[in-house]
Amino acid sequence: MKTLSHWIGGKPVEGTSGNFGPVYNPATGAQEKQVPFASVDEVDTAVATAKEAFRTWGTSSLAKRTAVLFKYRELVDAHREEIARLITAEHGKVHSDALGEVARGLEIVELACGISEKLKGELSTQVSTRVDVSSIRQSLGVVAGITPFNFPAMVPMWMFPIAIACGNTFVLKPSEKVPSAAFKLAELAAEAGLPDGVLNIVNGDKTAVDRILAHPDIAAVSFVGSTPIAKYIHATGTANGKRVQALGGAKNHMLVLPDADLELAADSAINAAYGSAGERCMAISVVVAVGDTADPLIEKIKERAAALTIGPGDDPASEMGPLITKVHRDKVASYVTGAAAQGATVAIDGTGFTVEGHEDGHWIGVSLLDNVTPEMDCYRDEIFGPVLSVVRVETYDEAIALMNNSPWGNGTAIFTRDGGAARRFQLEVEAGMVGVNVPIPVPVGYHSFGGWKDSLFGDHHIYGNDGVHFYTRGKVVTTRWPDPSDGGINLGFPSNS
Ligand code: NAD
């Protein structure tokens, strides 16, 4: 069995705590690797290394930083296949899906290549006689990222490229379930010429996370993961004086109006509910079918679901892979059986599915639940598996009331041909990301990503302009180059003239 390492000071560092976590291949169920869990001392070493590196990286020129980032962009681009294979081996998602996440992560590296444009300050001349004012943004110091299992490469890339482009140094704590893709990204950064200690990785569990949250030399923490942990990270990090952005879980609704293109809506529901086996924070998990749309839409979804190929992520024929762990697989299955017991109609039951020759893999087929109501567990909880619920409502108003009653507000979508209804929806729905006939509206890298309500704790969305703001702080400089006529005693509050 392979033993993985931390990445500190530009090189692999063996774990010394004696604690390890298992890394499985979800398609076979076999534990193929173990990952070291960092102790408090090991986190402290990584932070001290990052702090030392900040002394030079924090004052390095924009030209130098962007030169590294441009080279990094080329290296990640050239290693897309290898990174995607690492993702599939530990997460289980199919290769094409893994390639998609690398591509979306690369968008943020590309944004970071243009950081000099984003860090251009503002200057106002002659705000008062012979007085100029400039606003600049400066890096924070050492910042940290804590990331979830479902996007082993993309979510770390939502964070560190912008953070380091802004002049910070970074300590990443990736998900202990999928550590290898992030490790590869750090190796490539070193190859691109990123100075040692600017990007560090500590693997680990709650011990490492809690040390990050308490460490006095960490200025800011970006977190992406489930809502209860996001809430905890935000409360603890801010109580310790840190800037925190903590993105949480979701329950994304797709509203289908009677005038929608039902073929497109059915395709979109399938792709967004079952892609990556539903293990996406932007997955559609509820279809809200208005009026008489439910019956024809369900028929179309059933036809498409029957044709899906589920299998190992490294088999090019597979469209959906296994779930991350056996425990998670059983939990997802329990929602399907529970929904039936609570009165939902199980239109498709995927719980008995397995793959011949891979019986120990974490398999589940796709499930479709009809006649779901808001009090059912399958509606209330984030299932994070390939389970799509259909809620039937009579009107748009009933639909929007249901959706806005959800504690989450990550992504949402409306399917309609009515521009007026779509416009109303954009303005009325309480969610951070809205799709109009687009089921997974993940913003491009130069916009920002983030939800509302229990899907995000903190004031900043992630990447885009919000990312640049999160990883920098403002400074305003007021300058006078004196003239002999200036000066004199005046105890009044400074006013401009
Ligand atoms: P998770 O919350 O279990 O873990 C996320 C990170 O927190 C991991 O690095 C993990 O080691 C750490 N962690 C776990 N328990 C902890 C604890 N008790 N104390 C301190 N740290 C802890 O999430 P996950 O299962 O890895 O990922 C899936 C979740 O992430 C889903 O809820 C999904 O919706 C959410 N997610 C959200 C977004 C978003 O952008 N809003 C994106 C991807 C995933």
From TrEMBL:
The lineage of its organism: Bacteria, Bacillati, Actinomycetota, Actinomycetes, Kitasatosporales. Pfam families: Aldedh (PF00171). Its EC number is 1.2.1.27. GO terms for molecular function: oxidoreductase activity. The keyword Transcription does not apply. The keyword 4Fe-4S does not apply. InterPro entries: Ald_DH/histidinol_DH, Ald_DH_C, Ald_DH_CS_CYS, Ald_DH_N, Aldehyde_DH_dom, MeMal-semiAld_DH. SUPFAM superfamilies: ALDH-like (SSF53720). It comes from the Bacteria. Keywords: NAD, Oxidoreductase. This is methylmalonate-semialdehyde dehydrogenase (CoA acylating). Residues 21-477 form the Aldehyde dehydrogenase domain.
